[in-house]
Design a protein that fits this description.
It is a single chain. With 248 residues, the chain is of the alpha+beta class. It has two domains: 78 residues, OB fold (Dihydrolipoamide Acetyltransferase, E2P) (Beta Barrel); 166 residues, Up-down Bundle (de novo design (two linked rop proteins)), CATH 1.20.1440.120. Helices cover 38% and strands 21% of the residues. The protein contains eight helices and seven strands; from the N terminus they run βββββααααββαααα. The strands form two sheets. Strands 1-2-3-5-4 form a five-stranded mixed barrel. A two-stranded antiparallel sheet has the order 6-7. A hairpin with a 5-residue loop joins β1 and β2. The longest helix is centred in the middle third of the chain and has 17 residues. The chain is elongated, with a radius of gyration of 20 Å. The structure holds zinc ion (ZN). The site of zinc ion (ZN) has 8 residues, from loops. The site of zinc ion has 8 residues, from loops.
Length: 248
C-alpha cells in the first residue's frame, strides 16, 4: 500500500552508512516509523527534506504487519530553520518531541495532535520565553491523549473543588477539602496556569508568568502525573540539555 501525508520528523537514527530510520508524526497516519534509504547521500532525493522538525510532504510504502514503512518520497514544506539556529528553542522542541513519543504510542491518526505539534514548533521558533509554550503544549497533549489534568472538579466526589490545591495525581488531579486524605498539595499557581492556558491560544500563553522556577516545577508535576497514567517512567534526555544551556 502506498500513502502520502504531511509529517514532522521527531527523531533521526542513523541505520547504515547512508540510511536513516525516522520517527515521524503525520497528519493522516499518526505516529510512524520509516526507513529512508540513501538519505545521507548528498545526491539523495531526500537530502535536506528530513531534518529534525522540518515539515514535509512524504510518501511511504507500507506493508501490513510491518511497523517500519519505507519512505519513497519527501519534499520539505518548511525547513524549521529558525528552530535549528537557536539552541534553546531547539532543545525545547526536542523536549516536546520526546513528550509526543512518550505519550503517543499507538498509530491512530489525530489531526488535533498534529496541529498541536505544528503550533508548538512554530511558537518555539518565534523566540523566548519557551517554558510557557512547552508546558501549555504538554498540558494540551495530555488532554488529547485522554489523560487530561482535572483542575476544577474534585476527582473523588465530582463537586466543584473551589480554590483547593489538594492533589491526587492517581485520581486525576485536584481534590476538594472534604475528600482530601493525603494532605498532598500542588502550588496554586500551577492550577491557575492550567486554567488560564486552556482559555487562550498558545501564542498568548507566553505572557503568563509563574513564580521563580515555577515552569520547571509545573513540568515535574505533569511528568509525575503522566507517569502514573501511562504506567511508565518518563525520562527526557533533552531536559538536561535545556538546563545546561540555561545555566550557561
Ligand atoms: Zn471531593
Amino acid at each position: 500500500m502506498k500513502a502520502s501525508t504531511q509529517a514532522f520528523v521527531l527523531r533521526r537514527v542513523r541505520w547504515s552508512e547512508s540510511s536513516l530510520i525516522l520517527t515521524m508524526y503525520s497528519l493522516d497516519l499518526g505516529r510512524m516509523s520509516a526507513i529512508a534509504k540513501g538519505a545521507l547521500r548528498p545526491k539523495s532525493a531526500f537530502f535536506g527534506a528530513l531534518e529534525l522538525f522540518s515539515r514535509s510532504e512524504i510518501s511511504v510504502s507500507r506493508k501490513s504487519g510491518r511497523e517500519l514503512d519505507t519512505l519513497t518520497d519527501a519534499s520539505a514544506l518548511d525547513h524549521a530553520g529558525n528552530l535549528r539556529t537557536e539552541p534553546l528553542a531547539f532543545a525545547h522542541a526536542c523536549l516536546f518531541a520526546e513528550w509526543i513519543m512518550a505519550i503517543i504510542t499507538g498509530t491512530e491518526a489525530s489531526h488535533p495532535t498534529f496541529h498541536l505539534l505544528a503550533t508548538v514548533l512554530e511558537r518555539l521558533s518565534e523566540g523566548p520565553p519557551y517554558w510557557p509554550v512547552l508546558c501549555s503544549g504538554v498540558e494540551r497533549l495530555l488532554r488529547l491523549a485522554g489523560v487530561g489534568i482535572e483542575v476544577d472538579r474534585c476527582t473523588k466526589c465530582g463537586e466543584d473543588a473551589g480554590r483547593s490545591n489538594r492533589w491526587d495525581p492517581l485520581s486525576g488531579g485536584v481534590v476538594c477539602d472534604v475528600c482530601s486524605s493525603t494532605g498532598r498539595t500542588v502550588p496554586g499557581g500551577f492550577l491557575e496556569f492550567i486554567r488560564k492556558s486552556r482559555q487562550m491560544p498558545i501564542k498568548q500563553v507566553r505572557s503568563l508568568k509563574l513564580w521563580k522556577g515555577g515552569y520547571r516545577q509545573s513540568f515535574e508535576i505533569m511528568r509525575e502525573f503522566a507517569e502514573m497514567h501511562t504506567d511508565s517512567r518518563l525520562k527526557f534526555k533533552s531536559l538536561a540539555v535545556v538546563e545546561d544551556i540555561e545555566n550557561d
